[in-house]
Amino acid sequence: MTLRRERPRLPAAERRRQIIDVTTRLIAERGFWGLSMQDVADGCGLTVPGLLHHVGSKDGLLLAVLDHRDEADVRSLDEAIGDASSAREICAALVRRNANQPEIVRLFAVLQAESLTPGHPAHDYFAARQQKTLEGFARLLKDLTPDPDGVAVRIAAMMDGLQVHWLRNPAEIDLVAQWEAAAEMIFRDLDPPTGG
Amino acid sequence: MTLRRERPRLPAAERRRQIIDVTTRLIAERGFWGLSMQDVADGCGLTVPGLLHHVGSKDGLLLAVLDHRDEADVRSLDEAIGDASSAREICAALVRRNANQPEIVRLFAVLQAESLTPGHPAHDYFAARQQKTLEGFARLLKDLTPDPDGVAVRIAAMMDGLQVHWLRNPAEIDLVAQWEAAAEMIFRDLDPPTGG
DNA sequence: GTTAATACCTAGTAGGTACTCAGTAGTCCT
DNA sequence: AGGACTACTGAGTACCTACTAGGTATTAAC
Question: Cross-referenced Gene3D superfamilies, in alphabetical order (chains A, B) (predicted)?
Answer without folding.
Answer: Tetracycline Repressor, domain 2
